[in-house]
Design brief:
By secondary structure, the protein is of the alpha/beta class. The protein is 23% helix and 31% strand. It has helices at 16-27, 53-60, 83-95; strands at residues 8-13, 39-41, 47-52, 76-79, 99-106, 112-117, 123-128, 132-134, 140-142. The strands form 3 sheets. It has a 4-stranded mixed β-sheet with strand order 4-7-6-5, covered by helices on one side. The chain has a 3-stranded mixed β-sheet with strand order 1-3-2. The chain is globular.
Length: 146
């Protein structure tokens, strides 16, 4: 059986209410808070779930230590349609309380990107690249002849 896509990314958060407000402001998508103790942000293709960090670790195993410091080696990313969109999204995140880690700028790979950290320290890259395009439904794809 093939796993054709990632359906949900769950982020363990310190404060569910604040994280929900932050992501609604940054993503511009109303959160689904219909289920007690968890927030779902229903994005095309992959949803984001916000869940209290301690409960997420407990759900995995009582033996999972909670360690939240430094860089975990994972980033989340959003590909924007233009350089101006990259700047606008990073600014919107900063206005919502994110810490801008790297101002939007030209990249070594020919694109344009910036990074911010959300309220719980998860790193997000917002990028534009000349090799990317978008399908009608908004899904990311490579440009033909890229």
């Amino acid at each position: 059986m093939k796993i054709s896509r990632v359906t949900v990314l769950t982020l363990g958060v310190a404060d569910l209410v604040k994280a929900t407000e932050f992501y609604e402001a940054v993503l511009g998508t109303p959160p689904n808070t219909s289920f007690d103790g968890v927030t779902f942000i229903e994005l095309p293709g992959t949803w984001i779930a916000l869940y209290p960090l301690e409960k997420l670790a407990e759900d995995i195993s009582s033996e999972v230590p909670i360690i939240r410091s430094g860089f975990s080696g994972v980033t989340l990313a959003h590909n924007a349609r233009s350089k101006d969109d990259v700047v606008a999204i990073v600014r919107r995140a900063a206005s919502a309380g994110a810490r801008v880690v790297k101002e939007p700028q030209e990249t070594s790979w020919g694109g344009f990107s910036g990074y911010f950290a959300d309220l719980d320290g998860y790193y997000w890259e917002v990028a534009w690249g000349p090799m990317f395009d978008f399908a009608e439904n908004g899904e990311l794809k490579f440009k033909e002849n890229a």
